[in-house]
Amino acid sequence: MLGKVLSLLGFPDDIRRMNFRQMMYQGLNFAMIVSSALMIWKGLMVVTGSESPIVVVLSGSMEPAFQRGDLLFLTNYEKDPINVGEIVVFKVEGRDIPIVHRVIKVHQGDLDDNNSVKFLTKGDNNNVDDRGLYAQGQVWLTRKDVVGRARGYVPYIGIVTIIMNEYPQLKFTVLALLALFVLFNRE
Questions:
Q1: Which of 84, 106, 137, 167 is deepest in the core (most CB within 10 A)?
Q2: Catalytic pick among 61, 80, 96, 112
């Protein structure tokens, strides 16, 4: 099926007409696009202080504040205190996917030490707090669990990510078509 689609788009003819130099140019062009995207991501990590400056809301636990598929922009500056009511994104030991929930309680240990703060979270649409989601024996979250704090969002843009993860064949087909387009599109 992919071969038929590529023939309709004229890819085999373009490949035959390209010489070695053009193929190398297109390969380098593709490598530059990929490396530019990685550099932008790393730059965002440095500027925001977050290991993941952009995340997608994957569940409905934060409705009505955030819907499934909303794209969140995060920061994680160590000097900013965590306050009740803030929306944080955190990772729990044993879980790969970060969780987006609101801080409902803060316990301050040493007033001078921002790292001694412990806090409890809950999804706006959940009936109970998140202690059942935390790692075995964990009752509070700490700063080291925080990936970032929500600073802004774009509604529903992240639904593309959710669809791509739920249908991996679609993801690989789209990526293959994009790669072929970049590699074999002549300027």
A1: 106
A2: 61
Q: Where are the beta strands (DSSP E) in the chain?
A: 54-56, 71-75, 87-90, 99-108, 117-122, 141-142, 146-154
107 in catalytic set = no
22 versus 65: which is more confidently predicted?
A: 65
* Six-digit token string for 167: 């249908």
Q: Which 8-state DSSP code applies to residue 70?
A: P
Give dist(CA 42, CA 137) in Å, integer: 34
* 52 is a catalytic site residue: no
Of these residues, 50, 70, 101, 145, which one is catalytic? 101
pTM of the full structure:
0.76
State how far the Cα of 68 lies from the Cα of 155, in Å rounded to an integer: 9
User: Which listed residue (50, 70, 112, 130) is catalytic?
Assistant: 130
How many of the other CB atoms lie within 10 Å of CB of 92?
Answer: 16
How crowded is residue 34: how many other Cβ atoms within 10 Å of its Cβ?
A: 11
In sequence order, which residues have a C-beta less than 8 Å from that of residue 125 and are 6 or more positions away? 60, 61, 62, 63, 64
Starting at the earlier edge strand, list the strands of the sheet with 54-56.
54-56, 71-75, 146-154, 87-90, 99-108, 117-122, 141-142
Give, in order, the Cα–Cα distances in Å from 41 to each of 44, 46, 63, 115.
Answer: 5, 9, 28, 26
List, for residues 48-102, the tens digit of each pLDDT value: 999 999 999 999 999 999 999 999 999 999 888 899 999 999 999 888 899 999 9
Catalytic residue flag (residue 61): yes
